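User: Can you model how glycine sits in this protein?
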Amino acid sequence: MNTLQVELGGGRRYPIYIGSGLLTQSGLLTRHIRSRQVAIVSNTTIAPLYLDTVKTHLADHTIETVILPDGEQYKTLHYLETIFDRLLASKFSRNATLIALGGGVIGDMGGFAAACYQRGIAFIQIPTTLLAQVDSSVGGKTGVNHPLGKNMIGAFYQPQCVIADADVLDTLDDRQLSAGLAEVIKYGLIRDAAFLDWLESNMAKLLARDKAALAYAIERSCINKAEVVGEDEFESGVRATLNLGHTFGHAIETGSGYGHYLHGEAVAIGTCFAADLSQRLGWLDAADVARIVNLLKAAKLPVTPPAAMTTAQYIELMAVDKKNVDGKIRLILLEAIGKASLPVGVDLAQLTASLNAYAG
Ligand code: NAD
Ligand code: GLY
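Assistant: Here's the modeled complex, given as structure tokens:
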């Protein structure tokens, strides 16, 4: 097992445990639980696979399980309320602990529920998708979607710990594995060119689920994420670079109906758009863009936008983004491979021209 620390300001820190067999490891989970009452939030797909294993460590606790329907379309205020209903009905106190057992949807919702319930209860992340292990479980962004915009309602709320057991990826389907690779590739593109080289050489191993390659990719991704979050927990600067491809990707997710494109798939297409725009600004050359597109394709990710969406639709949806300032759309672009820009204000004419060329 490898342990990384996310170092936050004011001496606050929490561990990310990465390895095999962590879900069955006695004492690992319970050392972070100080309450008798423990809520486990999961979904209908993950609970039958892993809930009993987690529960075996909690024999001395009062457990309440909240099993949500599976899907991005259920990441809503309505389903968040079902968590509060259950905790209140079971008289859970402010010292209770909430465990999110699942992918990014469950992690984001569980974290937001923990942030809000009685103004904040302890929270533990057990991420079960590659995407959640390399990105969403780390850093404390929690929340739900709104029909008008992705992740528009939420809070920064850090977990007590993250337990990333690579063995749970055995049951993940290939499409979900690829979706996670979109966020892995992101770290290489925004700040770790040597990791990008490694990913190009090892993509076949990752797709074949080679354990050592996966463990390395998870760890290197978490190191990158922990460094960025440690520097800028509340996204006043460098943390925004983690959103490479996300503004366009979120527009695809919202515009196509939540759940149609996987988050990682939409991010992959958004990354191609960001690369295209970076080339138009003279920052990347054609060979760089081809390199990015080829790596995403090698990870079996989509690289072209949905034909059904129009430029006007993209602009309307991209106008609802947390990076925007005074209504101006701002995007993360690439100054070079391995170096993201801070948010760049893109004027409407330039954006329209790029969207017409790229997605029209
Ligand atoms: P997800 O949570 O929907 O999980 C994908 C699918 O895999 C689901 O059907 C799930 O039930 C299933 N699944 C999960 N673990 C499994 C396992 N071990 N075996 C078999 N099936 C399993 O999707 P995701 O890609 O994990 O997360 C996407 C979400 O994460 C989006 O809502 C996105 O906005 C959010 N996100 C948040 C952050 C953040 O910083 N908070 C970062 C990136 C993405
Ligand atoms: N996934 C973006 C962030 O955590 O900031």
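A couple of observations from the model: Residues 159 and 190 are 25 Å apart (CA to CA). The chain has two domains: 2-171, 174-358.
User: Helpful, thanks.
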